[in-house]
Amino acid sequence: MNLDLDRLCVTTLRMLAVDMVEQARSGHPGLPLGAAPMAHVIWSRFLRHDPSDPGWPDRDRFILSAGHGSALLYALLHLSGYDLPVSELKNFRQLGSRTPGHPEHGLTPGVECSTGPLGQGVAMGVGMAWAERLLAERFLVAGAPSLVDHHVYVLASDGDLMEGVAAEAVSLAGHQRLGKLIVLYDDNRISIEGSTDLAFTEEVEARFRACGWQTLAVADGEDLEAIAGAIELGRAETERPTLIRVRTEIGHGSPLAGSAGVHGSPLGAEKLAATRAFYDWPNEAFHVPAALDVYRAGVIERGREWSQGWAARVAAAEAADPKRLTRFREALAGVLPEGWDAGLNAVDFGVKPLATRVASGMAINALAPHLPSLIGGSADLAPSNNTHMREGGARNLHFGVREHAMAAVVNGMALHGGWIPYCATFLVFSDYMRGAMRLSALMETRVIYVLTHDSVAVGEDGPTHQPIEQLAGLRALPGLTVFRPADGHETLAAWRLAVSGRGPTALILSRQNLPLLPPNPEGVARGAYVVAACDGEPELVLLASGSEVALALEVRARLAAAGHGRVRVVSMPSWELFAGQSREYRASVLSAGLRLAIEAGASLGWHRWVGEAGEVIAIDRFGLSAPGEQALAHLGLSVEAVTARALEMLNH
């Protein structure tokens, strides 16, 4: 082979990716064959990273938003000296391997986020770039070098840029002037169904320019120097994010080049042989030329120099301001500062009923002065969601009406490190966020979702704004902890658990005022607890969450007046936490008697808690436009209706 080092690297990347797909008999060879040159240029000439320390905080971030091309990323990691040996490449897409079908954060060293659902990687890249800028500003030490100074590179496909989540994120990034974000667009003009002309004929660069981006174009995706020149221009532009459109050929070098047939299927023996011949490559699977050992050693050495140089900057900043450096290290490590919840302990709700969305706003503002890593905002609903930090300054984020991108952006912020992000909208609009929330749960990012206006008590806005199935849907999401607090005290407890816990949390909050209950943070932490007990074993247990706990207490009083004094009320703010308790604790709360669950949402899931003999009063239809109390009553959630159902059960 008569190839210079760069070409040798590019061809090795291509053939490793093809071999991975062939060995697995599954995968996507087309993107790696077409996009390997641009990926190599990023990784070999621009990406500041340290394979011996993949978590080095000031590394550049690389996101393969087109996650179906994961074989290319794994080949890059292997050639760069990460802990990803050839044996893992040979196990591509196999059970227990570190080379899954789409990149998974936390599984493979060097993978910054889980990608595959198209557009999400672009949006998470926006979040990482935004987090970088805010962190740099927060920990700027006078007279010392910057502690945070890195770029975010995203490799995106046609499919990424068709998705609405990417469009929302692109608009937000341009508005925020995220100059350290560079997106390379793999413009191969092929989608699964054929040419992108079937469905995608917009002027992509014009759209990005209209959103405030610098746009550049490389006419030949094989031209390494042209790609490098465009990236240099992207790095030089500090006021605008940059899109670089690189014209590539999907499946370059294979007999299926330029066609949809090479997108998502192995080449097969005959076409693989032809591809090897095109590149004058040995007929040896997973061949890595010995000459690349020198390349790999150089990448590792350069990475150590970068990370050690950053350590020297940290030492200089520590000498200038040691207290700030302590806070910096704590923030990066996700360590909560001493006294972070002191403000929560001092919150006084008084005695009047208040909406849990209001209590949540009080919690945010109690946390903000003591928890400088708290950052967040709303999808243009902060006055309704109560999410504005009065003394938050730049920590108040304005996402605009972009729920889908908002949720993905905060994932990027959480993954970047240094921040505990929250975002907010109405519960019914969590539907727009579902894809990003699912990834949040999958990646275990510490993100807090504030979802208000939680039931048909929204009232006059009608069924389009009244959530029904959303709560059940969120509870079905593995790894997401859902709280529907019954009052201000439960809301404070939920915030404390959300901040101090792992993984994502959803806070489901009321618009209407709710009476205060006796504080029981231990009960909230266990997911469910007895709010109102009775003498002896109860003949009926009323189970409820959120606003329906107050309703259950009123029903209990009516039943007592009717001669049924052995009625217990249980608040269930978090099914997930309750399910994690011991069998003995769950039995002590639920009792062995009859159970009636009450919730202003879909009944799905409640039968697990009420048992075969129990009943559920819920809403398994869409709502209606009417004042909140009238809507609830019309749908069977009035004191009178619930009391009548309870009496039927007791007298049966």
Write down the overall mean pLDDT: 97
Report the structural category: alpha/beta
Give me the count of strands.
18
- Percentage of residues in helical conformation: 40-55%
- What is the CATH domain class of the largest domain? Alpha Beta
CATH topology of the largest domain: Rossmann fold
β content, as a range? 5-15%
Count of the domains: 3
Q: For the record, what is the CATH homologous superfamily label of the largest domain?
A: Thiamin diphosphate (ThDP)-binding fold, Pyr/PP domains
Q: How is the largest sheet built, in terms of strand order?
A: 9-8-10-11-13-12
Unreliable parts: none
Tell me the radius of gyration. 28 Å
CATH architecture of the largest domain: 3-Layer(aba) Sandwich
What's the N-to-C terminus distance? 87 Å
What overall geometry do the principal axes of the alpha carbons give?
Answer: elongated
Largest sheet: 6 strands, parallel
Helices, by number, come to 26
